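Troubleshooting: if your tokenizer reports a length mismatch, compare against these two reference records.
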Amino acid sequence: MQKEKLNKTWFIDIDGTIVCHQTNYNLDDIIEELGTDSHTVEKPIERSLEFLNNISNEDTIVLTTARDSKHKDHTIRMLNYYNIRYDRIMFDLRSGPRYLINDIKPPGVAGNTEPLTTAIAVNLERDKGIQL
């Protein structure tokens, strides 16, 4: 069995990856100015939306963000407004590097004949979108 046949979990950052980057300070200002309509001014990155729409429904999407949890309602409204699929969101993360650490599946565990690496990391240019 190939790695591509296994269900995947995608950890994807929100700002600068799915939508154009916002700081918590920007969000504070936008929310103060526009209230519950604040989510409508966020700018989704089209190629990222296309990428997300092509992820299998069998896979899990975990959105990650350094957005403060006080921006949770705004962020969820924005995700729903732009019909951005996700299964879970992690708020209040640090802005620095994020590490994904996972084990290597030994031969036979997933129908594989060779050891199968299960940790993949991709760095993208800010606000350019996902294109793998």
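Reference record two:
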Amino acid sequence: MTALEALKPVDLVVALRLAEAPEAKYEQLSADLGISRSWAHAAVQRLLAAGLLRPKSRTVNRLALMEFLVHGLRYAFPAQPGGQARGVATAHSGPPLASRIVAEDSLVWPSTLGSSVGQAIAPLYDRAIELPQRCPSLYENLTLLDALRVGRARERKLAAEEIARRLALAA
């Protein structure tokens, strides 16, 4: 693997999981995210090369991750709401923002597993629709990332504040 290999969306999911559970081994990351151990390992290598994980300790560089999420995520991994679909609630429609934002429009990851109806957006990675059952805290974090990707200024601000709190960066 070269140091110039670009980040993949799943890498951010791995980083968020490592921020929640720094002791997680590749087997645990694999089980939590529904990816193979080799994918988890490759994600960690890309995160190290990007400076989002600290060398040798594999701990999340929380300030760098926050900076990338707030200022680069929507440009590196854009999402465009599409037609109406049934699916899993995300962005301002999912937890934790749904309790703080009243909106007429809903956003969902298209899936027969979901019970919400709204405009469809593609999740950051294919197995995200399984996260409400597999790893609820990570599901909430991904809904916050979607608010950063597609939200208006207010939603992005609230999502950034909540991510900072979850990454223990809030003042």
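Descriptive notes for reference record two:
- The longest strand covers residues 84-90.
- DSSP finds eight helices and three strands in the chain.
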